[in-house]
Amino acid sequence: MVVSTAKLTDKFQITIPAEVRRQLGLKAGDLVFLAVEEGRAVLRGVHGSWTDSSRGLGAEVWREAGGASAIERERDSWS
User: Fold this and answer.
1) Exposed, middle or buried: residue 35 (CB in 10 Å: 0-12, 13-18, 19+)?
2) Considering its fold, how many domains does the chain have in total?
């Protein structure tokens, strides 16, 4: 596990430390995915297309709403 710190600027920006960038395989211009999970900020490198990297995002919301049947109800409401 890489443990690093970064200082938040006046514009709420941070610089991702070099060791973290290396571990995640990030380079200038790459997208990163940020999430809050259990009160912690999580940063992930986005590899491949945005669609591929965001697959499953929000799955816990649908599980809590009733799983596949909730998704079907939502789809049925579109027509």
Assistant:
1) exposed
2) 1
The continuous run of DSSP H or E covering 42 comes out as strand 40-45
As a whole number, the mean pLDDT across the chain is 86
pLDDT tens for 42-68 read: 998 887 666 766 777 778 888 888 888
Cα–Cα dist 69/54, whole Å: 22
CA distances for 20 relative to 8, 50, 79, angstroms: 16, 21, 46
Q: How many residues does the chain have?
A: 79
User: Are 44 and 55 in contact, with CB atoms under 8 Å apart?
Assistant: no
In this structure, which amino acid lies at residue 3?
V
Residue 10 maps to a domain: no
Q: Is residue 36 part of a domain?
A: yes
Residues 6+ apart with CB under 8 A from 53: 31, 33, 44, 46, 47
